[in-house]
Design goal:
- The protein is of the alpha/beta class.
- The strands form 4 sheets. A 4-stranded mixed sheet has the order 5-6-10-9, sandwiched between helices.
- Helix 1 crosses helix 7.
- The longest helix is centred in the N-terminal third of the chain and has 20 residues.
- The protein is elongated.
């Protein structure tokens, strides 16, 4: 993990804890006899390194010390990101090391460091939701994705804000050792293996908190849990004990969107999770998420996400674990 002054402490501690915990979990479960991962914090110089919180890490290896290839190179973000972008030696080191790493990753605004080094040109990437617009404006060659928790483009991974780095690390662990190991570590950390929804501040799950009237909030939560049900305005109005006309008016006032729009976004969100987490066919997902047909789901995805379901799955579903690499690690 590459750090710098005023980095965000959770960007560093969160992902590294996933990998160190995974090493212990594998040994405890009898699946390995030696640590599967060795974690290392590097910075421009050895010694105490102050985080944005005021707490300090002790860096025992500088960028100048790290000469051998690394398996996974991660870059932290935080308040010090833009000062670090002006450190030409640091950026040059990133350019030099990136081709020597099997995987290249950023956490939160660490994406800007990869971008400054020219490592994201032509790629899909994400960052903290507050910084997505700036990332796109400053680096127009990047295809910025504003909502995903993390984005994989080839061997390059970028994550959204702060704790999303933990989600990314769990996904990398799943690639290396499979779902059982990743799920076991996630449970140890009291984390979702895959948290529902994206980072958008207007996601369907977050919007269930936006309505002032309790019946509407309850109905929003019910819709999210019953996307395959018949969710016409009339049916929803009856569930809310209102006339259809009054219900539509109240729902729009309380949530800022029509009932039909909310239902479609809830179904898209449910389908997104299924595309990421399962191998079910697109036809089966369309049916189970209330779209009825594959074409209806495709049109809804393009409206909401500007990408069809097949492209979304190929972009955001983790790569399958490398069985040979897993066997090598477990026999180490």
């Amino acid at each position: 993990m590459l750090a710098f002054p005023d980095a965000q402490i959770l960007d560093i501690a969160g992902p590294l804890e996933v990998f160190s915990r995974a090493s212990r979990w594998l040994i405890d479960e009898g699946l390995a006899t030696a640590p599967a991962y060795e974690v290392c914090l590097v910075a421009a110089a050895r010694g105490p390194l102050a985080m944005s919180s005021g707490l300090k890490f002790v860096v025992e290896e500088s960028t100048g010390d790290l000469r051998s290839p690394v398996d996974t190179l991660m870059v932290a973000g935080g308040l010090g990101t833009f000062a670090a972008m002006r450190d030409q030696k640091l950026i040059a080191w990133l350019r030099k090391m990136a081709p020597r790493a099997r995987r290249l990753c950023s956490v939160c605004t660490g994406t800007f460091l990869l971008a400054e080094a020219g490592l994201l040109n032509g790629r899909c990437a994400t960052t903290h939701w507050r910084a997505c617009e700036l990332l796109q404006r400053r680096f127009p060659a990047i295809k910025v994705q504003t909502d995903p928790i993390f984005v994989r483009d080839g061997r390059v991974y970028t994550s959204a804000g702060v704790t999303a780095g933990i989600d990314l690390a769990l996904a990398l662990l799943e690639e290396d050792h499979g779902r059982r190991v990743a799920l076991g570590v996630a449970r140890e950390l009291v984390m979702f293996l895959r948290r529902p929804g994206g980072q958008s501040q207007f996601s369907v799950q977050l919007s269930t908190q936006s309505a002032d009237r309790e019946p509407i909030r309850e109905l929003q939560a019910w819709i999210a849990d019953h996307v395959s049900a018949g969710l016409s305005v009339g049916a929803l109005a009856r569930r809310a004990a209102m006339s259809a006309r009054n219900f539509a008016r109240v729902f729009l006032r309380e949530t800022g969107m029509t009932p039909a729009t909310f239902v479609e976004l809830a179904r898209v969100e449910a389908a997104r999770r299924r595309l990421e987490e399962s191998a079910d066919s697109i036809d089966a997902i369309a049916l189970s998420c209330g779209f009825g047909t594959r074409e209806s789901m495709r049109r809804a995805f393009i409206r909401a996400l500007r990408v069809p379901p097949s492209a979304y799955r190929s972009r955001f579903r983790p790569a399958p674990a490398a069985e040979t690499r897993r066997a090598l690690k477990l026999s180490a």
